[in-house]
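Dear support,

I submitted the protein below through the web form. The confirmation email said the job was done, but the results page showed an empty box. After a refresh the structure appeared. I'm attaching both so you can tell me whether what I see now is the final result or a partial one.
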Amino acid sequence: METGLSEQQGVTRLCIQCALLLLQHGAESALVEELSTRLGLALGMDSVESAISSNAIVLTTLHNGECLTTTRKNNDRGINMHVVTEVQHIVIMAEHKLLDAKDVAKRFTQIKPLRYPRWLVVTMVGLSCACFCKLNNGGWDGALVTLCASTVAMYVRQALTHRSGHPQINFCITAFVATTISGLMLRLPAFEQTSTVAMAASVLLLVPGFPLINAVADMFKGHINTGLARWAIASLLTLATCIGVVMAMTLWGLRGWV
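What the results page shows now:
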């Protein structure tokens, strides 16, 4: 009896660790619930039930009439699909009996989020914003302005994130920097005829697309509370971005967006 209970405790910890890894790195709630349940069933549980919110997970396993419930607090660690994919692979291997509970626990501890070099992220974000400007009739001069502004803004955003700055403050400061650089560059004689699309394109790196997509997906799939929480967070980030843009335009007397 004690041996069975001990095994159930171990599997319960693995199930909620699985759910926590997914939720912390940007997976939608339906996927979190599905994979944690599949892992528990693959490791011998009769049933796995979970309740997911934006900042906590409650998970219960049922085995041989014994019910165990555990709770974990969720701390956002940023969107990272590498971690989500690794967890999916581990669950699939457990379902095919290629891994037991000890192997799954070992694999979970070995998961390390894949991070691209900072210089590469900064460069690619700058180029993507510049391309958007060019595609929206901003011209090559506008693309150059956007490239400079968004590259510096992304560097500032990464620096603030590295220092564990508050996300809303981070977005506000980054938007302020991007708008300031692009707006002041448009005042230079060489860019007097440049479209102000460059100003709008320079803050595109702050659009919270992934949280908004997850919010809609959660609400469509029945996780209303989590979806609304994610929607609220994304809206606050958007509001912080708007505040940063308005502050820069007011302070420097910049032209409005056309």
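Response: this is the final, complete result; the empty box was a page-load delay. The chain has two domains: 2-110, 118-252.
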